Structure formats: structure tokens, C-alpha cells
């Protein structure tokens, strides 16, 4: 029936048929149908066609062409198009269109949950009491729209009185509702002393993520730096909340074959984020991390979040890949030049990051970043970059890592 209407050229039927095909992973046909509906002026197909172009689904990634389709849908008043234009405009080492704040606002006003979530976390980084209230109001709005991450962040803030007076009763009510959906509490963390942005009160100023925070040098050889308070409590919780359902036993790359393998060297569990699944909030956190490491996000491999339980560790290793193993994973991007890790919670005991050659140990602290070089200035591997995640003795350790290549790795 749908196919009949679609063949007759009804844009709505084309759109629905394409959506059904996406659900069945028949992406090539879906792409063609979304394209036909988009041509016929169907806004939501314009957005979906653009999304497929952004992420290179059943076609080569073409962010520029995606942007053109999004602009058409936005002109017709589609707030998801505005939201995706924000995702496209930020990062890549530069801002291509300065209207991202206005666009995010439009998507927030239309109650698009990922936009509400990103805006809440943005206001939550700001120092003023009024912006903290904005953060709480937006988290509440997101939770009301059914966004479980907003609900979890809100519960933690209410429980600990972050940006408000503690409201344990209200927090418990939210936590009970979440528990009914099988969602547990987040690990406790002390709120980091933030590098709060000096942006205008009440204003969205997303380009703030592109200003690198000042790093403290910790060692010259290998080159290691730390930044305290790079991520806010909300951002640490966001990463944990998004990683938790996707954790699996960590794998390492076999240095001889380049194939992933489970080894005793890395006993943690991890989740890695395909950029397709990234929402704006996750993307902003990654831009902040890449910017702190003075690299464009486009050079980053997929974000990885690790969880170590007592006794789990990452034995001494180096992050650069053995030259042979690069063949299988975007060799044109070069090797892993730099690594940035951010601790996401408070570890009760153990779990330091150790650089055994200079004898340097960095203690985990929520929001603290460790940045280090894996290659020498001439691009050759630096054997001194040997490092380890020491065994956790008590509690859990959550960590986010971006491995940054010498050249472009992602489409945008
Ligand atoms: O867990 C740590 O402290 C180190 C993690 C690490 O070496 C990595 O993610 O490459
Ligand atoms: Fe490492």
C-alpha cells in the first residue's frame, strides 16, 4: 500500500517507506527514497537525507551537501534541521557559520530533547546563579520530555544541591522513576572547580568550547600535561550515562596482526561512541577535549569511555599503533600523535595513571584531564610514552579517552 502511494509520488508515502527501510537496515533504497521525497519538498526527508549525507550512510559522507539540505528544511521551519546545522558548524577546528547559538535556541524552543540537553549542560558550566537556575529548568524540561539523561543529571543536582538547595525528596522521586526503567544511580563525584567561561549571563555561547584551557606541564620527556576542571560534573555524568548501557570487555590491538583481541593487559570494560550516535552535548564535550589537546576533533578516533572495577587495570603500554596495524584503520590519518584522558569520577583508592619511566603518577579527580604525546616531534614513535592505568583498589574508575591522529580521521 505504502509502496503504491510512494510509487505514485506522494512525498509523505516516500518518507514513510524510507523510514521503514532504515529500520530494516535497507539503507541504499532508503537513501534514494528520502532523496526523492526531499526533492519534492518533504521537510523531514530533507533532514533524514542530510543526516545520511553527514554520516556517510549508504553514500560517501558529504557534510557540505548535507548542510545545503538542512538549510532548505530550516527555511521551512524545521527545528531538527537547525539542531543538525549546529552539530555541523561546530568543530573541525573552526566555526563556519556564526548562527549556531540562534539555531540551538530555536531547537530548544521547539522542545527537541537533544537540544534541551545540550543547552542545559552549557548553562550548567556557567558561574552565575541565574545560569545555574537555567540549567536546572532545562534539565527539568528535558526530563519532562522523556530524556532519561536529563532526568539523571537533574536527580544528582537536586540530591547534592548543585545550583540549588538540596532537595533529596525530589531527587529520590526521580531516581525511583528511573529505577522502574532499570536505570540505576550514577557514581558519586565531587563537583570540579571549573574553568567557568566568561560568557554573557543568560546567553548561549557555544563557541566557548573552542577556547583551549591552560594546561599545567607535568613532565618534559615524555611530554605530559594536566588540566583540572576541564569537564563539569554534568559533562562527566553525561559521558558515564551514555557509556553505561554500551559497556563491553575492553579489547586491545594485537601488535603483530593489528586485529583487536581481549588481553590481560587491559581488564577494564569500555564503550566507544560511533559519531552517528553522538548528540550535540557529547560532541561539545569531545570538542572541548580535542581543543584542550590543541587538535581538531576531526583528527580524533571514536571517543572511548572505560570503567575499571577493583583489581582492573591497563598494564604499561604505548598508545601509538604499530605501523603495520594502521593499514586497517585509516592509514591516511597517520599515527596516534596525542592522547587526552579525562577522569569522570572519584576513585576511592588506586587507579592512578602512571608514566613509569619518569616516575610520574597522576591521581584521578573528576573533570581532570591528562594530555600526553605519543610521538616525537619528527613523528617517530616515542618509546618513553609508556604508561599504565594502575589497578583500582577500591570503588570504580571511569575515564574518557580520545586518541588523536596526526591527520584527519573523521568526516567532520
Ligand atoms: O586508565 C588510565 O589511567 C590510562 C588509560 C590509557 O592509557 C588509555 O586510555 O590509553
Ligand atoms: Fe594508553
CATH fold label of the largest domain: Jelly Rolls
Task: Give the fraction of residues assigned to helices.
Answer: 25-40%
The CATH superfamily title of the largest domain: q2cbj1_9rhob like domain
Strands of the biggest beta sheet: in what spatial order?
Answer: 1-2-13-9-16-7-6-3
N-to-C span: 39 Å
- What is the helix tally? 14
Total count of domains: 3
Total strands: the figure is: 16
Task: Calculate the mean pLDDT score and round it.
Answer: 92
Descriptive account of the structure:
- This protein is an alpha+beta fold and 412 residues long.
- It has three domains: 2-90, Serine Threonine Protein Phosphatase 5, Tetratricopeptide repeat (Alpha Horseshoe); 113-180; 206-405, q2cbj1_9rhob like domain (Jelly Rolls, Sandwich), CATH 2.60.120.620.
- 39% of the residues lie in helices and 15% in strands.
- The protein contains 14 helices and 16 strands.
- It has an eight-stranded antiparallel beta sheet with strand order 1-2-13-9-16-7-6-3, with helices on one face.
- Strand 1 and strand 2 (224-227) form a beta hairpin.
- Helix 6 packs antiparallel against helix 7 (100-109) and helix 8 crosses helix 13 (280-292).
- The mean pLDDT is 92.
- The site of fe (ii) ion has 4 residues, from loops.
- Residues 314, 319, 339, 341, 353, 387, 389, 399, 401 line the site of 2-oxoglutaric acid.
- This is 2OG-Fe(II) oxygenase.
- GO terms for molecular function: dioxygenase activity; iron ion binding; L-ascorbic acid binding; oxidoreductase activity, acting on paired donors, with incorporation or reduction of molecular oxygen.
- It comes from Agrilutibacter terrestris.
- InterPro entries: Oxoglu/Fe-dep_dioxygenase_dom, P4HA-like, Pro_4_hyd_alph, Pro_4_hyd_alph_FE2OG_OXY, Sel1-like, TPR-like_helical_dom_sf.
- Keywords: Dioxygenase, Endoplasmic reticulum, Glycoprotein, Iron, Metal-binding, Oxidoreductase, Vitamin C.
